[in-house]
Amino acid sequence: MSIPLSWYLILAAALFCIGLYGVLSRKNAIAILLCIELMLNAVNINLVAFWRYQNAAQMAGQAFAVIVFAVAAAEVAVGLALIISVYRRRKTVVADEINLMKW
Amino acid sequence: MTAEQIIFLLTGALVLVSALMVVTVRNLLHAALWLVVALFGVAVLYAILQANFLAVVQVVVYIGAIAILFIFAVMLTRREAMEKGRQTRNNWWIPALLGLTILTGLAVLILSFPGVQRTEAVLPAGLDTVQALGTALVSPDAYVLPFEVASVLMLAALVGAVYIATVDKK
Amino acid sequence: MTFWNNPINFIGYWLNGILTGWHLPAAIASILLYVIGIIVLILFAMTLDIGLVWVERKVVARFQDRLGPNRIGPFGLIQPVADIIKMVIKEDITPDGADKIIYNVAPVLAATSVIVLWAILPLASTIYGVDLNVGLLFIVAAGALGTLAIIMAGWSSNNKYALLGAFRMVSNMISYEIPMVIILLIPTILANTMSVRGITQAQSGMWFAILSPLALLIFLISAIAELGRSPFDLNEAESEIVAGFHIEYTGMKFGWFYAGELLHAFTFGGFIAILFFGGYGGFFGLEKLAVLTWLNIPFVQALVFIAKATFGYWVIMWIKYSVPRIRIDHMLAFNWKFLVPLSLVVLVNTATLNKVLIVLPNWLYVLGMFGSNIVIGYATIEILRAYGRKQRKAEKIPEPQAHTQEQAV
């Protein structure tokens, strides 16, 4: 049991930045959602690491992480439903081509 | 270099390598499967942090439900022409630069906090984390309100997803 | 700590002494011992699997009023070895256009998702892999890995029938996970813990099968659906979609799927034994009698557990070889419209009565819990009958009449 807290935080930051790169640079809308999941997981690692290293008897960190699980699941469900619905109409999932409401 | 540190380094390497594969592979199904590997690595990290309930729930919710949902969505929205060629936008170097900048900034900021190099304290004896989490999620002076709001949110998401994805019967 | 009391720890200490006697550092010795333990556990599970091939073929033969394999070895006991040799020497074909890495990883992942369950299955009070305090959720997590393996297999075969079978199987498995998770909360409530050993020890007074028979029934049904066995085996129905998701698999890869399914069925028989029939613990606390204390020796407990697990496995096989297949939309309607509401009602009932009746003496508590389950079961059957009657009246189907022999002619 000798892992410094900074290792966890830097791992979470690296995962977050990889997810950020994915969101901003992928063309396919489903791939963008995949990278959003990476960012949410990075946030969760941060929360649970702080829970363990601060006051482990106080459950705020884990409770917050459980709520983030629920929010991520809800967001993926609605997001994928929207993407499938858009695919049925416009026959494309490339984010750049879904531009009917652009100015 | 203790055994825990070696396990942490291996798991961290697994998570970061699979995350890099998620953002770079061309075949979208392979990207979804690399995401499964990354999520599994994160579950191992939760187990190292002694949050066993969260580790198991991560596998059940993320890998057992969300990843399967992604794989189904990938299979239902396939077009052969979309899988060839580059899968990243033309100016991909801007997000890469942005990501590296933010990473170095965060790393410098993290390492400058006081007390960030501390190692973990021993868990208090007799603390059953699962029971404590359960009590915290339903006790009125802890987190029952966010818990109930999250369940209403999931109900709304369920109804919304079913409604949006239903095929209109003319 | 003697060998008879605590065999695994005894052997572990002895081997540790030998390894450190050879001047290995303590950390490496302990890692080596863990690896040896894991290999021994996997070997035990896979050897049991080979025996299960024989059991399955003999039992299905007897249900179908025939003898089963009896040529090779006495009573056909060497038959599984012949089966394994046949599978190993078959040609290993990879279909054209298949995704090679996913195609090869899928059977290994399917078998792995079953073997990891043996890490938490306690064979005796001191023979177990690890005692997780979230053991019950671990069962669901291993099921999730199995689901992933099936969809990988179906997709990477580059075959429409395989994909269709995989879609059906995955929708089946993720639907039936919900009643299973709700029912897994009932032993948790009754035993105050999610750890598998804790649940077994909490049944030393009264088996949970008596405290909650409806939970046992619903768990049995959702376990059979999770396994993908008949009557829920539309995914690999030979007469419909030609073996479903494992059409394109030959030789030992198919062997992994087949052996994995049998071991999965036996493991769920083991979990039914642990969660509802007292596990390794003997019979209703009889082992506290002085004349029966030999029931507490770990090896005898392991035999008792394997006997109970075999009984559970036999019930699963009995259902498989007696009941015809269910259509996919009936399967899903049965889950969402019947099992989920029923399991929620059973959960609320168990939780409320557990708190209310705990102050009463023990026999009144047991009677109250058992009686409430009977009442819920009866009410469910009455609701189903009324619903059926209403549907028959709407379609003007006459009520079934009993005919005597002369009237039928």
How would you describe what is shown here?
The complex is a heterotrimer of chains A (103), B (170) and C (409). By secondary structure, chain A is mainly alpha-helical. Chain A is 75% helix and 0% strand. Chain A has one domain (5-97): Helix Hairpins (Orthogonal Bundle), CATH 1.10.287.3510. Chain A has helices spanning 5-25, 29-53, 60-90. The longest helix of chain A has 31 residues, at 60-90. Chain A is elongated, with a radius of gyration of 17 Å. Chain A starts with a helix and ends in a 13-residue tail after the last helix. The mean pLDDT of chain A is 90. Chain B is mainly alpha-helical. Chain B folds into two domains: 1-84, NADH-ubiquinone/plastoquinone oxidoreductase chain 6, subunit NuoJ (Four Helix Bundle (Hemerythrin (Met), subunit A), Up-down Bundle); 128-170. Chain B is built from seven helices and no strands. Chain B has helices at 3-24, 28-48, 52-76, 80-83, 93-111, 129-138, 144-165. Chain C has two domains: 1-83, no CATH class; 90-355, no CATH class. Chain C has helices at 7-21, 26-63, 79-88, 100-115, 135-156, 160-191, 196-202, 208-211, 213-227, 238-241, 251-276, 298-320, 328-357, 362-394, 405-408. The mean pLDDT of chain C is 86. Chain B binds chain C through residues 3, 29, 33, 36, 52-53, 56-57, 59-60, 63-65, 67-68, 71-72, 75, 128, 130, and chain C through 27, 31, 99, 102, 132-134, 137-138, 140-141, 143-145, 147-148, 151-152, 155, 163, 167, 170, 174, 177, 194.
How do you describe this structure in short?
The complex is a heterotrimer of chains A (103), B (170) and C (409). Chain B has helices spanning 3-24, 28-48, 52-76, 80-83, 93-111, 129-138, 144-165. Chain B has 170 residues and is mainly alpha-helical.
The count of DSSP E runs of length 2 or more, i.e. the number of strands of chain A, is: 0
Query: Uncertain runs of chain A with pLDDT below 50, 5 residues or more?
Result: none
What is the percentage of strand-forming residues of chain C?
under 5%
Major beta-sheet overview of chain C: none
CATH fold annotation of chain A: Helix Hairpins
Strand count of chain C: 0
Structural class estimated from helices and strands of chain C:
mainly alpha
CATH architecture of chain A: Orthogonal Bundle
Beta-strand percentage range of chain A: under 5%
Q: List the domain count of chain C as a whole number.
A: 2
Order of helices and strands of chain C: HHHHHHHHHHHHHHH
Report Rg of chain C. 24 Å
